[in-house]
Structures are given as C-alpha cells and as structure tokens.
Write a structure and sequence with these properties.
The structure is a single chain. By secondary structure, the chain is mainly alpha-helical. The chain has one domain. The chain contains nine helices and no strands. The longest helix is centred in the N-terminal third of the chain and has 42 residues. The protein starts with a helix and ends with a helix. The mean pLDDT is about 85.
Length: about 250
C-alpha cells in the first residue's frame, strides 16, 4: 500500500525533495556570504554592533538593510511553503482522481477507502512536514547568526518572526495539507480545490494574526494556543474527508 501511494505521488514528492535541496543550498550560501561581509566590516574597524565610527555608518547601514531584506525573504519562504504544500500536494491528492473518474480504481481495491486515504495522506504529509522543518531550522540558523541587529530585534511576536518560528510552520503545514485534501475531495475539482485551500488558509491566518495584535503575551504561550487551534481544526477536516470519500460511488 505504501509503495502504491508513493508511486502515485512520486512526481510531487521528488519535486519537493529537489525544492528542499535547492532551498537549503541557497540559505546556506546566503548565510555564509552575510558572515563573510560581516567579518570584512569588522576587519575594517566598522563593527555592526556597538558604536559605529562616523566614516562607517553608511556602509554598515547598507549592509544591515540588505542583509535584513535577504533574511526576510528566507522567513517569507518558511511562511509561504505550508500554503503551497496545501495547494499543490493536499488539494490534488484525490481531487484529480475524482475529477477524471479514476477514483473507481481506488474504491475497488481490497483495502478500505479509509485505510487507503490515511496511507496516501501520511505518505504526502511526512515529506512536507520534514521539508518545512528543515527550511525553518536553516532560516532560524541564518537569522540567529545576525543577532539583535537582524530580525530578532523586532521581537518574537513580530508577525514575520512569529509565523516563521516555533510551532507555527509545522502546524500551518499540517492544517494546510489536510484542508487541501478536504477541499479537493469535497469540490471534486483540482483547480477550485487549490484556490479554496489558499483562501481558507489565508483567512484563518489573518483572523489569528488580528487576535494577536496589541495583546501583550508570551510568544511560547501564543504558539501553543495557535498550534492547538490548527490541530483542532485538522482533525475534523480529516474525518470530513473520510466521510466524503466513503460517499463516493
């Protein structure tokens, strides 16, 4: 069963692996470049942290601005991949079969629909979670090297810092892939299911971000609360998918 599910999804999963390798290489390269420039400034007597000599202010400001922009792109990547995984891995997982009528082959197998769905879901979810966590760790490694002059200086509850750290990326990925699976099975149209997944994911993110705004709280506590919300929504979405698939004929 696992082998069959892998063969069915091999194109998406191999593309996912290539994306992860490329992303990891780019992050590592940009982090190394940032540290090289940082050391060059220090050797010229232009430290980024502490008191900056008047003659170095322009160079240091340009370096910090450009480095923060690149780290921001890395953080944005970590924030965006859950939505992309939900759209391009979760939503088409069964929607394409339902749309083309090939799901008949699935429901005539000796295994139950629920078991087939669960195995296919786990084969898709495992690599997407792994890639998300790897990218999160690498971007965090990059941002940590910058210290307080980097994104950390904005605080842990800064929207970008919060969404790219802690439990957020993993909980976003789990929810987005499951929401994509449910939307695709319910709507039975791949493209519409992908759009519905993106809309639902963004709407929930906006609502929760609005609830965080202006309310002082510990970042770890907020991560736990939001993680519980996403997990709490994931379970009924998966059960709903099983129910929808059982009613297909």
């Amino acid at each position: 069963m696992i082998w069959v599910a892998w063969r069915k999804q091999r194109t998406q999963l191999l593309t996912l692996c290539a994306f992860a390798i490329f992303g990891a290489a780019m992050i590592t390269w940009m982090r190394a470049g940032m540290l090289h420039e940082l050391h060059e400034l220090a050797d010229r007597g232009c430290p980024v942290e502490g008191r900056t000599p008047p003659g170095c202010i322009r160079d240091v400001e340009d370096f910090v601005e450009w480095s923060q922009a690149k780290m921001g792109l890395g953080q944005t990547l970590v924030i965006a991949v859950p939505a992309l995984f939900g759209m391009f891995i979760g939503a088409p997982l069964f929607a394409r079969d339902l749309e083309q009528g090939t799901f008949i082959l699935m429901i005539t197998q000796s295994v139950s629909r629920a078991r087939w769905l669960a195995i296919s879901f786990l084969v898709a979810l495992g690599p997407t979670l792994a890639v998300t966590l790897v990218l999160q760790a690498l971007v965090g490694w990059w941002v940590d090297a910058a210290g307080d002059w980097g994104p950390h200086g904005r605080g842990a509850l800064d929207p970008v810092n919060f969404a790219g750290s802690g439990l957020a990326p993993a909980s976003y990925t789990l929810f987005a892939v499951t929401a994509g699976l449910f939307a695709g099975c319910l709507i039975r149209r791949t493209t519409v299911g992908m759009l519905a997944t993106l809309g639902g994911f963004v709407a929930l993110r906006v609502v929760l971000a609005g609830m965080r705004t202006g309310r002082p709280a510990d970042a770890a506590t907020v991560h736990l609360i939001e993680g519980a919300i996403f997990l709490g929504l994931t379970v009924p979405l998966f059960l709903g998918t099983v129910l929808v698939m059982r009613r297909q004929s």
